[in-house]
Amino acid sequence: MKLILVFLIFLFLNANKLDSHELWLEAEEYLIKKNNKLIVNIKVGENLSGEKYPYLSHETEKLFIENNFQIKNVEQINGDYPAIQQSLHSKGGVQYLYYQSNKETIKYTDFKTFLKFIEDYNLSYNYKDKIIPKEIYQRFSKIIFKYDGNKFYPSRNNLDFEIINLNDPYKYDESKIKIILDGKLFAKKSFIVFFKNSNGFKKKYYKTNIKGIAKIDTKKGGLYLISAVDLKTLNLIDRLKYNANFFSRWASLTFKKH
Questions:
Q1: Where do the DSSP E strands lie in the chain?
Q2: 133-151: per-residue pLDDT in tens?
């Protein structure tokens, strides 16, 4: 019965999935008390408004937690909803949950939707090409949470595309981040910070410096989603292989201040 329900949810959500690129992890709690579980939803949508997805193994390439530089794979049951329900038995302090999706292919419903995405993230594109594109995309998402303690350390670079906090966002009013793509600095690139609390929603644009670093205003209490995108035009061989024009990769990082 559970699998049938999950299948119906999956079909409904995927009907609206194609034009909603952003995926992020959203925890029920970010400051977790000892013996409580980490409960996290996989969400897809726009502007921090989206649908919750069940855990689906065929869409998941990697799922793990980093704690004190130790990596622990997270095993979930196919169809779990909320998607991630994990007991924590480790030393207290800051920890990181990572989710990496498998590659998927979409075709935009119209050219205007594609251009909106390009312009929003200030990506390079040949505007003379008016063909509605097909695209491979992949998501690299993580959250910062605390479990039974306050000790902070910056995570290692564990994904091909990753946003790394260099200081404790729960402690300081300015969050310092570094973005890395394929082991190289994501230098002088635009990215977006989405913010939401009981008073409303805000969206702010930032740009990394030559070292791939940026400072973000995090004075207010609420949910923060940092989102960066890389778009690559596929070469002829990959176009034939994937039957697509572009490959987009999406890095996201979420945390919530009280």
A1: 22-27, 31-32, 38-46, 49-53, 60-67, 70-73, 84-86, 93-101, 104-107, 134-147, 161-165, 174-181, 184-185, 190-197, 200-207, 213-217, 222-233, 246-257
A2: 899 999 999 999 999 988 9
**What does residue 216 show for φ and ψ, rounded to 5 degrees?**
-120, 135
Please say if the pLDDT value at position 28 is more than 60.
yes
Q: Which two tokens stand for residue 223?
A: 């949910």
The count of domains in the chain is 1
The token pair that represents 78 in the structure block: 């196919």
| Residue-range definition of the domain harbouring residue 58 | 2-257
Distance in angstroms (rounded) separating the CA atoms of residues 107 and 135 = 6
Average pLDDT for 39-58 = 94
User: Per-residue confidence at 19, pLDDT binned at 50, 70, 90?
Assistant: low
Regarding pTM above 0.90, the answer is yes
Q: Is there a contact between 221 and 67 (Cβ–Cβ < 8 Å)?
A: no
